[in-house]
């Protein structure tokens, strides 16, 4: 069974950094498109970054240059390094997996999420 579990969220001050982890079980992340999403209260979930099975990456404009998506193949874990955090980055962050990146938005394979709160 494919499972995803996030960790690493927390509270930081503006300008700080956090690294989120997404531990995957039941499938090899190297063969899937992996992505991070975030959801603000009362808003739709939005894509943050994706990492294709071929290593290609995509970043949403608000996080480009500040966030880095990566994976540790040996640990079967996805990461999101977040630097220079801003209060507008405060959200519930979750990871997702799909066979192809074009299907990642509607994939049912998601974790429960981890909360990130950035104070000014």
- Number of helices, where a helix is a run of at least 4 consecutive DSSP H or I residues: 0
Radius of gyration: 13 Å
Strand content: over 45%
Number of strands: 10
Low-confidence blocks of residues:
none
- Compressed to H and E, one letter per element, the order equals EEEEEEEEEE
| Secondary-structure-derived class | mainly beta
Mean pLDDT: 97
From the spread of the alpha carbons, the general shape counts as globular
Essential attributes:
six-stranded mixed sheet; mainly beta; 120 residues; four-stranded antiparallel sheet
Task: Explain what the structure shows.
With 120 residues, this protein is an all-beta fold. 0% of the residues lie in helices and 49% in strands. The protein contains no helices and ten strands. A six-stranded mixed β-sheet has the order 2-10-9-4-5-6, with no helix packed on it. Strands 1-3-8-7 form a four-stranded antiparallel β-sheet, with no helix packed on it. The N and C termini lie far apart (41 Å). The model has no long low-confidence stretch (mean pLDDT 97).
Question: SSE layout and pairings?
Answer:
Blueprint: E1 3-7, E2 10-13, E3 18-25, E4 33-39, E5 46-51, E6 57-59, E7 67-72, E8 77-82, E9 91-98, E10 114-119
Parallel strand pairs: 2-10
Antiparallel strand pairs: 1-3, 3-8, 4-5, 4-9, 5-6, 7-8, 9-10
């Amino acid at each position: 069974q494919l499972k995803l579990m996030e960790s690493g969220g927390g509270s930081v001050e503006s300008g700080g950094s956090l690294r989120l982890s997404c531990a995957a079980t039941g499938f090899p992340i190297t063969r899937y498109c992996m992505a991070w999403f975030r959801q603000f209260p009362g808003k739709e979930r939005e894509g943050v970054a994706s990492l294709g099975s071929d290593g290609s990456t995509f970043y949403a404009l608000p996080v480009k240059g500040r966030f880095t998506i990566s994976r540790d193949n040996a640990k079967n874990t996805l990461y999101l390094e977040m630097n220079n955090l801003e209060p507008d980055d405060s959200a519930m962050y979750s990871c997702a997996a799909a066979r192809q990146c074009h299907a990642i938005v509607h994939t049912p394979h998601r974790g429960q999420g981890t909360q990130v709160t950035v104070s000014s």
